[in-house]
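Handout for the seminar on molecular recognition.
Each group receives one record of this type.
Step one: identify the two inputs.
Step two: read the structure output and locate the region that could contact adenosine monophosphate.
Step three: write two sentences on what you found, then compare them with the reference statements printed after the record.
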Amino acid sequence: MSVLVVGSAALDSVKTPLGEVTDALGGSAIFFSAAASFFAPVRLVAVVGNDFPLQDLEFLKARGVDVRGLEVADGKTFRWSGVYHLDMNNRDTLSTELNVFESFKPKLPPEYRDTPFVFLANIHPELQLEVLNQVNNPRLVMLDTMNLWIDIELPALKKVLAKTDGVILNDQEARQLTGESNLILAARGVCKMGPKMVVVKKGEHGAFMISGDDFFAVPAYPLELLFDPTGAGDSFAGGLVGYIASCNEFTPAVMRRAMVCGSVVASFAVEKFSVDRLRDLTREEIESRYARFREITGF
Ligand code: AMP
């Protein structure tokens, strides 16, 4: 089953203790597509400027990502830059240049409107609502957001949350959204806003999920060399939603395996800058790390 993603396409400049890159391929929709495409066909909606190196998307097309929804607008591509320090769980945003992203109005090609799985990556909640108005009865709608929208667009965010089946947040966002310091209570508080499934990511400490009556926790893969955490969250979401779409069912067992698939793909994404590791990643490597997860969590 296909997955629709609407989010950012960016040129990222990132500095970590291990190096730096300038204007590298990034953005939530790009990381998500690169990850989800290992599991299901992906349909991408985003905007770039006419300075964007479209040839960099060839690897996505080769993996079945439909880019007919990528708009090339007159102007410069969205640029984000950030720096990570020794504790790579936290980053400082150095600059955000919205450029063509500022006037982005997602328009779904008619062929995308019946996509059964929808991922609303981190964009303005009003735009997320506009996307939902353009899809016909999706089977699953999942959402990501960020602290900025919790701060300045809470009513719109609550409106879109009420229309989603699942949400993926990091620990700080879950606390900020609910005012609860205890993360389990925070996740339950988010469930009360609408979604049946809430995933809370905790960086190098893994992630947990509350889905209906089920609770499941997964560690982060014990990586010894973390190169660049940018896009880990979107890659996690891509693995998770892509896997659910490949199964086309929502049993607790599928949801749990989806959490592991998200963790596996995210663990690869951080091994190189930008989408470089997801570009050369193979299905066999995913399967082998999936098996390793079974070993490290079994007792
Ligand atoms: P993650 O590390 O998973 O949170 O996502 C990082 C990606 O989010 C980067 O590639 C950025 O280009 C993108 N990004 C950063 N800020 C924003 C924003 N305000 N809106 C949309 N995308 C953003």
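Reference statements: The pocket of adenosine monophosphate is lined by residues 8, 10, 12, 26-28, 80, 96, 122, 230-234 (CB under 6 Å). The chain is about 35% helix and 25% strand.
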